[in-house]
Fold this sequence. Notes:
Chain A is α/β, with parallel strands linked by helices. Chain A has helices spanning 40-48, 69-72, 91-101, 108-117, 134-147, 164-179; strands spanning 2-11, 14-24, 28-33, 55-60, 63-64, 76-79, 104-105, 152-156, 183-187, 205-210. Helix content of chain A is 30%, strand content 27%. In chain A, 44% of the residues are buried. The longest helix of chain C has 29 residues, at 198-226. Chain C is elongated, with a radius of gyration of 18 Å. Chains B and C meet through helix 4 and helix 5 of B and helix 9, helix 10 and helix 11 of C.
Amino acid sequence: MLRSHQISCQRGKNILWESLDLEVGPGELLFIKGANGQGKSSLLRILAGLATPNSGSVTWDHVLIQKITDTYHPNLLYLGHTIALQSEMSAIANLQFLLRIHGHNIPQQAIHNKLLEWGLSHKTIQLPTRLLSQGQKQRVALTQLSLSQSSLWILDEPFNGLDQIGTEHLYQTMLHHLQNKGFLILTSHLHQNFQHVLANDPALQEKIITL
Amino acid sequence: MEYKNPTNPPIAQPINWFAFASPSRFYQLSQKIILLCWILFLITATAGLILGLLFAPTDAVQGDSYRIIYIHVPAAWMSMILYLAMAFWASIGLIFNARLAYRFAISIAPTGALMTFIALWTGALWGKPTWGTWWVWDARLTSELILLFLYIGYLSLYYSIHDERKAAKASSLLAIVGAVNVPIIYFSVKWWNTLHQGATITVSKAPSIEQTMLIALLLMTAAFWLYAFAVIFTRVNQRSLIDESHTDWVQQILRGRGQA
Amino acid sequence: MTGQLSTIEVMQTVFLRDLHLAIKQKTDTLGAVFFFALVASLFPLAIGSELLLLKQIAPGIIWVSALLASMLSMNRLYTNDFNDGTLEQLTLSACPLEFIVLAKILAHWTTTGFVLLLLSPILAIQFDLSPLAISTLMLTLLIGTPVLSFLGSIGAALSLGLQSAGALISLMILPLLIPILILGTLAVDAASTNMPFSVYLYLLLALSVLASFFGPLASAFALRIAQE
């Protein structure tokens, strides 16, 4: 259960938003909406613990996230605006690295299979990622979702660059995660809500915050 | 479904025990103090200089040129004390996330650098008539030079970062790292000096202290302290007015001055 | 399906990746090494080829060149990861950032400080240093260059993403490296004149241990500040 208590965000002299209380738990999808520049990415970074809020605090199971990084980090998968892929390394090498630093020892074959599931060809995943298109890079990054053990996903604009099939696959991955007691927080400038993702499952809930 | 606030109470913020932790309170309290500091500075500086330049006896060995110590020694002391003070406030700022503490640290830096600069220049002015050269690489002067570089490094980092909070935090860490290194640097420079040069007398060795000289020196030290307080407090308040120009208390003050 | 990795295994992953990337991006890595040799060669050109004089100032020249070359190479420690988003992932890793930083610094030293150390005897011969002096020099570089990396890392972390990061790192960190410079050169000078020099080496070792502890700690702290 992730909670924020009266957090505020300041950029330069402007206060973007303040006194924000929110709560996300298993089976819940928290959708952050707002125009560009309203501080959606900043909110996600604060919730992930990458940035500190101007005031207020964020807690995981009632403990400040700064104090329990050893339990919070393994439970968190954060995909930021910049896709964390090293341009000279191949997709599969990149994923292996990212999964390992999050503590997961996943065999290469499993990673390979998931990449294929996300619509990337066998040849593509061996190339240095600088040769991949934006959409392909996005898919590589999103493959982490299928391989992760983390309960909380924080995703910044995950739908960027995806085509119809990719989008559909992402919906399915999100649904699967929520049904397995996972929870997720995301931003997207393309959607109004995610009711259709939740597939009318009464155990799942969507919450919306507009900044 | 639109989100509603939960009924759980928020986590309590740590309490600030420092009465002046609020920039507005500090502003109010310091106005009189700054004025007092300037007045006392004028008194002590005048007294110290008159005593030191006119009444203290001429030194047997160095003649009248030694009198530069009335500026050199207090400046050198202040340069070191101010660096430690800067590191202290930097630590407070990082531990308690207190804006005012950060402001103190960055306000101390220019004055500290100035003191170091004065100490180096007066050291050179002392050296020329006494030892014939404008500079000697003795332990004290070399350490002062390194201290100047530490101040410059701190200021460079602070002014390179555009975001004010980030700049304050980053430079505070540097100040603390520097402060921890200062004793190590000082002792290694001292060692370096004794091993490379056989010289037993250094530029910074003061002539044997006589009563009048001591009083003059103490007065000048007090004067430098008071100057530092006055200038630093003023700078802190200026920063508060600029950084918090959007708040009510600043608007009130500016209106009072006719500047809002 | 999955096993959990220990801290050491994660550090190993980071170390090997950084090493692999450094070897791949040769220009960055070798640049510092060539700079080292170049700067050292500038001094005889500036001062004169009289070997007796050069022999005296050689330890200083080689050490200063090592300092400058190290500082020049520090910028790449975190910049690439910062730019491509990997640094965020490293910060959110299950392994504490301090250990990851330690692994990165060690990988960096292996491709910088360690290579300078290997090149130093060649430069030392150009200055006509005695075999004892050369071996002492190498020993001081072995103990001292990690400190350059540990403290340089703090500079790199503090100036992350800034325009003039290279110059800023040198400005901030070079004063802090003066004790290492002094101890390193005093040791070689003592060795050259057949005086006891082990005390300098012990002190260098002590400073190295301190730096290996505080360097990663301060660097991780600075990295978190830089990513806010």
